[in-house]
């Protein structure tokens, strides 16, 4: 068992990494798919290509002029609805009770774009956005955590030093894009700018095209409109980026593939260590069974038969490690899926990659072959007379 421990860990790690990465890819596609195939996200800053670009999200490149330019049917006739958005995690309180959620500032179009349904009360209106009204629509989890059995509509809550009147409760929805709607606190973006963040720029501009077929032209017109507004001639210098459901899924798929390959490379180190352990064990076995080898050769066993015997023993050891590793990987993947279902506000399915199991069995056999050849050759080359005399 100690000999095959490295094989068990290596194969188990491959099963876990590939299975979790496969489901993570599916989760992202499902979450962004909930946006709808006609939704377009315009982000502030340069398009992130890796961890070094995370600070691009902090730029202030999207402002009111950009919203007005994109709202013009002359510039982007394919856009049906559009809203600027500002969002951040905030603590909200009511009569001594507190909870945290995503405070999202937007206009009244956000409820149409995200297809959100109101269970109680109403959403805010265009006039309330213009008047910077201190009104709020909250998700079902915020309602349960904050109000309990109290009717929340009409109640006043506080965020920082500002008071908001709750006018509506959203039906349980779950995740839409990067937002958990059940932990959502929606207010007019003008109110958020004036009373909460004190800024004049936006994190995102979210729009919805008139049809799926209009998406490519809408994206092209958005880019050209913003480049004109920002005086950008070279597309490589864009201080914004445009995402659709397909773009996000493809980008995450590429990142997930790179991370999966990296983690599998790390797991391969365990396989190499396990292979060295197998080779050392087989060398000890050859040394301890020298007289057995001599006796078999004296009785007529050919060198090739001796080599195949020890080679098969090495393969059987690594194959046993591979099977245990597969069982270990499947078990750990199950526990991880249960834990992520509890921790994340989304459905995480228990998925085991079939090709990872095939790879696990194949790699186990290959490790046995590769690291068993040298001990098997040592056994093959022993002289019958010398082996019989060995003490």
Write the layout of secondary structure elements.
Elements: H1 5-33, E1 39-44, H2 64-71, E2 79-94, E3 97-106, H3 110-113, E4 118-121, H4 126-130, E5 135-138, H5 140-147, E6 156-159, E7 162-170, E8 175-176, E9 179-180, E10 184-188, H6 189-197, E11 204-209, H7 215-229, E12 240-244, H8 245-288, H9 290-298, H10 303-343, H11 354-380, H12 384-389
Parallel strand pairs: 3-10, 5-7
Antiparallel strand pairs: 1-11, 1-12, 2-3, 2-6, 2-11, 4-7, 5-10, 6-7, 8-9
Helix pairs in contact: 1-8, 1-10, 1-11, 2-7, 8-10, 8-11, 10-11
Task: Give a description of the structure.
It is built from 12 helices and 12 strands. The chain starts with a helix and ends with a helix. α1 (about 5-35) packs antiparallel against α11 (about 355-380) and α10 (about 305-345) packs antiparallel against α11. With about 400 residues, it is α+β, with helices and mostly antiparallel strands. It folds into 2 domains: about 5-30 and about 255-390, no CATH class; about 60-240, no CATH class. The chain has helices at about 5-35, 65-70, 110-115, 125-130, 140-145, 190-195, 215-230, 245-290, 290-300, 305-345, 355-380, 385-390, and strands at about 40-45, 80-95, 95-105, 120, 135-140, 155-160, 160-170, 175, 180, 185-190, 205-210, 240-245. The model is unreliable at about 50-55 (pLDDT under 50). Helix content is about 50%, strand content about 20%. A hairpin with a 2-residue loop joins β8 (about 175) and β9 (about 180).
């Amino acid at each position: 068992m100690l000999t095959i421990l490295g094989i068990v860990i290596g194969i188990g790690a491959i099963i876990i990494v590939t299975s979790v990465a496969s489901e993570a890819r599916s989760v992202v596609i499902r979450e962004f798919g909930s946006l709808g195939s006609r939704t377009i996200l315009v982000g502030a800053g340069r398009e992130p290509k890796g961890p070094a670009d995370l600070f691009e999200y902090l730029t202030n490149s999207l402002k009111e002029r950009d919203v007005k330019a994109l709202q013009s049917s002359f510039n982007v006739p394919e856009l049906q609805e559009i809203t600027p958005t500002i969002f951040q995690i905030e603590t909200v309180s009511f009569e001594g009770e507190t909870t945290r959620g995503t405070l999202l500032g937007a206009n009244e179009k956000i409820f149409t774009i995200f297809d959100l349904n109101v269970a109680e009360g109403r959403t805010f209106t265009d006039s309330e956005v213009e008047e910077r009204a201190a009104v709020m629509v909250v998700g079902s989890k915020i309602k349960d955590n904050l109000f309990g059995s109290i009717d929340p509509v009409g109640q006043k809550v506080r965020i920082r030093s500002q008071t908001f009147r709750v006018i509506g409760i959203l039906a349980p929805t779950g995740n839409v894009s990067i937002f958990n709607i059940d932990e959502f606190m929606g207010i007019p973006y003008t109110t958020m700018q004036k009373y909460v963040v004190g800024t004049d720029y936006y994190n995102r501009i979210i729009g919805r095209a008139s049809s799926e077929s209009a998406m490519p032209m809408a994206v092209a017109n958005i880019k050209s409109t913003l480049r004109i507004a920002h005086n950008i001639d070279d597309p490589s210098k864009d201080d914004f980026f445009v995402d659709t459901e397909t773009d996000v899924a493809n980008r995450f798929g590429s990142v997930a593939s790179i991370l999966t390959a990296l983690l599998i490379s790390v797991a391969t180190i365990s396989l190499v260590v396990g292979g060295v352990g197998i080779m050392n064990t087989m060398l000890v076995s050859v040394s301890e069974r020298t007289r057995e080898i001599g006796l078999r050769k004296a009785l007529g066993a050919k060198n090739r038969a001796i080599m195949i015997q020890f080679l098969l023993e090495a393969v059987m050891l690594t194959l046993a490690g591979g099977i245990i590793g597969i069982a270990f990987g499947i078990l750990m993947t199950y526990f991880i899926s249960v834990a992520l279902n509890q921790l994340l506000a989304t459905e995480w399915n228990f998925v085991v990659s079939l090709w990872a199991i095939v790879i696990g069995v194949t790699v186990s056999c290959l490790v046995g072959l590769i690291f068993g050849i040298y001990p098997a050759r040592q056994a093959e080359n022993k002289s019958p007379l010398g082996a019989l005399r060995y003490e």
